[in-house]
Design brief:
Helix content: 40-55%
Strand order of the largest sheet: 1-4-2-3
Shape: globular
Number of helices: 16
Number of strands: 6
CATH architecture of one domain: Alpha-Beta Complex
Structural class: alpha/beta
Distance between the termini: 39 Å
Radius of gyration: 24 Å
Length: 332
């Protein structure tokens, strides 16, 4: 989308002049760092459907494309319970599917379909909206899927993974790795919270596939060598960001640094890696609800502490106490 010119741009005062209160303050310039393909899905049909058990089965049996999540037991249970209590709003349901190539894919409604199928045999069949689309490319299929956000929210993690599936950046990596790593890339590339929020799932996927595909595979391959205790230590967003920063700087050396931090071997108290491991095992991110008595720190401090430890280790410096820098510095 082009930048909104001044003569077309609305201000908060424009909206308040119409008698509206509590007008949200947004940026109306329409400036986007990364252009995205516009959604261009054609509507084949849009109709009211009697949602019988047979119709639910027809929808469930539609294929899913790579990257789509499986139906979650807990959400199906929640929808089923609401339906039984007669608190479920059937008017809000939209079953969406889309033709692409020779197949027709699920887009929205699999959890509702499963819950409908579990309902008692004498439950009256409701009417729902059924929309049938057609698209001409896989990118359009993903864009259409991402545009739906109904009863079960599609998180940034899920949508970013969806965009990455099939790309060279994730070749050979398992689904959990592809889901966990992107937040680290976002935190590494963007220093401020506002910049991080402005980079949505599609934009982040473009940055990864266009600029950092090989790096993403490299970090992912290392990540998958870690055992469960190490993963719990390393999978926090600022630590992942530091992984990307250091692997980007010296990819042949970074595994040596992080492996010892992860498993705690070959470390003495004068080693920067010992100090970093001690820091990571005794702190948690401030937003963490269950901190287990650990000291809460913010993400930026944790990232800077990781980079400080890396730089000290690269200098072969003896460390008595490790402190984060006052601002972001690049790995040496």
């Amino acid at each position: 989308m082009a930048v909104v010119s001044l003569d077309r741009r609305k201000t908060r005062q424009d909206l308040e002049s119409r008698g509206l209160k509590n007008v949200p303050q947004i940026s109306a310039e329409g400036e986007f760092a990364i252009p995205l393909e516009e959604l261009n899905a054609r509507v084949v049909s849009d109709r009211s459907l009697l949602f019988t058990e047979d119709e639910a089965i027809k929808y469930i049996e539609l294929p899913v494309f790579a990257g789509e999540r499986d139906a979650g037991d807990s959400h199906v249970q929640y929808l089923y319970d609401e339906m039984l209590r007669k608190r479920f709003n059937w008017d809000a349901v939209t079953l969406a599917r889309s033709d692409f190539g020779s197949d027709c894919y699920k887009i929205n409604g699999q959890h509702t379909s499963w819950a409908r199928l579990w309902l008692p045999r004498d439950y009256p069949s409701p009417r729902v909206r059924a929309v049938h689309y057609a698209v001409d490319s896989e990118s359009q299929l993903k864009a259409l899927y991402s545009s739906y956000d109904r009863a079960k929210t599609r998180s940034d993690l899920h949508l970013t993974r969806l965009e990455l599936v099939g790309s060279d950046a994730v070749a050979g990596l398992n689904k959990n790795t592809v889901t966990r790593l992107p937040p680290g890339v976002r935190f590494w590339l963007f220093a401020t919270r506002s910049q991080q929020k402005a980079c949505g799932p599609a934009e982040l996927a473009i940055l990864i596939t266009r600029d950092h595909a090989a790096l993403f595979r490299l970090v992912g391959a290392f990540f998958e060598t870690l055992d469960r205790p190490a993963l719990e230590l390393m999978c926090r967003q600022p630590v992942l960001a530091a992984l990307f920063a250091t692997f980007d700087r010296v990819p042949t050396v970074a595994p040596l640094f992080w492996q010892d931090v992860a498993d705690g071997t070959n470390l003495v108290k004068s080693d920067a890696r010992w100090h970093l491991r001690h820091y990571l095992t005794t702190t948690c991110l401030s937003r963490s609800a269950a901190n287990g008595g650990k000291r809460g720190v913010d993400s930026e401090e944790m990232y800077r502490m990781c980079i400080a430890a890396w730089n000290k280790w690269r200098e072969n410096a003896t460390v008595q106490a490790l402190r984060p820098s006052s601002k972001r510095v690049k790995p040496s």
